[in-house]
Amino acid sequence: GGVGAGLFQSIVAGAALDAGGDAKIIERFGAAADHPVALEFPEGEYLKGLLVLKG
Length: 55
Description:
By secondary structure, the protein is α+β, with helices and mostly antiparallel strands. It has one domain (5-36, 45-54). It contains one helix and two strands. It has one helix at residues 5-18, and strands at residues 23-30, 48-54. It has a two-stranded antiparallel sheet. The longest helix has 14 residues, at 5-18.
């Protein structure tokens, strides 16, 4: 299986803690509207990103 949005955010949060500082999610990124995710194939939601501000 792929990495879901929740697990991805947890991984980024863990990396921020390891880096020794506060972090805030400024923006979430994903696939464009022309790349829909089929309900029967959630693995299709593989394009994701976070813009994180480290304090």
